[in-house]
Amino acid sequence: MSAFDRSVKFREQMPMTTRTEEISETKRHILTKAEQLFAQRGFDGVSMREIAEACDITKANIYYYFENKESLYFEVLESDLLAMIAVLRQAAQYEGPCRARMARITACFSRLAQEKRPLIQMGMRHFGGAGDQVRDIFRRHRRQLIESIERVLADGVQSGELRALDVRATALSFIGMIFVHVIKRGEEGLPPFADGELAARTVDLLFDGIGARD
Question: Is the pLDDT of residue 5 over 50?
Fold first, then answer.
């Protein structure tokens, strides 16, 4: 076999990276670097040039994927929300009593929400009217965000561990409690909750309520 034939055979055996895959990888890289910079410096403290430099690409390449810095930020936020959905789905696969499953979901979700708090808070507070766009992102993915929680709660009702309840409303309240805790704590300049602390509080409130016990 000639050197040319060996070269052709080698290329044929190599995994092919399509143009679409290359684009997706570049875009993911931009989103990752942009998220890091936004979280460190805030929206106004980062320029598209600095994001391009962090990615080791030209600014023109950034604009190939994103119309402007605002659209890049909102896509970063949406990417983070999809990551939260994936975490919830994975945590919900845990087997066991409803309370243990909800504790696992709460721990995973609250940890990720605290990690992403600077970006979420920036979107809700620093953009003024653009906060509506942040809410639109949550509305688009709300169903996906709560479906894993709904399923675990429904299993709890079916097993008798929970009383009959509106699982959708309860799931939304659960998500709301975590976000309010995380965002308000950041606004007040308090340190993040200790690992597992927010999860324990939320699960205790969900299962035990606030009424006096006999």
Answer: no
Same-domain check for residues 40 and 76: no
Write out the E strands in the chain.
Answer: none
What confidence tens digit (pLDDT) does each residue in 100-122 have? 999 999 888 888 887 887 777 77
Exposure class string for 70-90: b at 16+ Cβ within 10 A, else e: eebbbbbbbebbeebbebbee
Q: What is the pLDDT of residue 78?
A: 87
Are both 49 and 115 inside the same structural domain? no
Provide the residue range defining the domain that includes 78: 69-214
Q: What angle do CA 65, 45, 139 make, to 5 degrees?
A: 55
Cα–Cα distance measured from residue 209 to residue 204, given in angstroms and rounded to the nearest whole number: 7
The verdict on 93 and 171 lying in the same domain is: yes
Distance (Å, whole) CA 97 – CA 155: 9
**59: which residues sit within 8 A by CB, 6+ positions away?**
48, 49, 52
Tell me how far apart the alpha carbons of residues 205 and 201 are, in angstroms, rounded to a whole number: 6
Those residues whose C-beta lies under 8 Å from the C-beta of residue 201, and which sit 6 or more positions away, are: 181
Could you tell me the CATH number of the domain that includes residue 57? Answer: 1.10.10.60
Is there a single domain that holds both residue 106 and residue 169? Answer: yes
On the question of pLDDT at 6 being above 50, the answer is no
- CATH code of the domain covering residue 130: 1.10.357.10
Nearest to 104 by CA among 152, 163, 168: 152
In the chain, the number of structural domains is: 2
Burial of 31 (0-12, 13-18, 19+ CB in 10 A): buried
